[in-house]
Amino acid sequence: PRPGLLQVVKQCVRVPVFVMIRPRGGDFLYSDREVEVMKADIRLAKLHGADGLVFGALTEDGRIDTELCTALLAVCRPLPVTFHRAFDMVHDPLVALETLISLGFERVLTSGCDSSALEGLSLIKRLAEQVRVPWGGITERNLQRILEGSTASEFHCSARSARDSGMKFRNPNVAMGASFSAPEYSIKVADVAKVRTLNAIAKNIL
């Protein structure tokens, strides 16, 4: 998020706010320039009140980039750090998790190296015995089964829905880079009802 968004979020919520550090979409193999951007973004996030940071970096052969992660962790101190779903693209998740533990990451975001946490549940069970592992691909339809089928105590999801744009004039001939699944006149927003439903499910299970 931009510093302005972080500042406003911090004014509106009481839960800890962790900031994602990701200079671009695509893979998790970063150039020297991108690393400089990541370091600058970490410093800005800390300056504007982030409670923790979230990032991930891999080597070209699908292993944790220990050198880069160590350098970024140093910039993040003393805040806690989570390794994001770059984890789902590693060559060996069990070895990768041990590496992350040794580096000092406190959490890992993962869908069990599968399309969603439900499909990756068997791996999540193994990983959760080693470290707290929130997951991805979670909805109000599958959360209960996932929580009941693992020993992890936290979960991660977007809980979003689409909201139609308030624009009355719309130019159908121009696209601003959005894909067909996310047009300019549809906005993804956090869905309060979904968040409340997920919280209720979790409180009933955990």
TrEMBL record:
Keyword NADP assigned to the entry: answer is: no
The record, for Pfam families, names: CutC
Q: What does the protein in this record do?
A: May play a role in copper homeostasis. Can bind one Cu(1+) per subunit.
Which UniProt key words apply to this protein? Copper, Cytoplasm, Metal-binding, Nucleus
Secretion signal, residue range per the UniProt entry: none
The family line of this record is: Belongs to the CutC family.
Which coarse location class applies to the principal site listed for this UniProt protein? Answer: cytoplasm
The answer on whether this UniProt entry bears the keyword Nucleus reads: yes
One GO molecular-function entry: copper ion binding
Question: How does this polypeptide assemble, per the annotation?
Answer: Homotetramer.
Q: Cellular location of this protein? A: Cytoplasm; Nucleus
Q: Which organism is it from?
A: Lophotis ruficrista
Gene Ontology CC entries for this record: cytoplasm; nucleus
What name does the UniProt record give this protein?
A: Copper homeostasis protein cutC homolog
| PANTHER family found in the cross-reference section | COPPER HOMEOSTASIS PROTEIN CUTC (PTHR12598), COPPER HOMEOSTASIS PROTEIN CUTC HOMOLOG (PTHR12598:SF0)
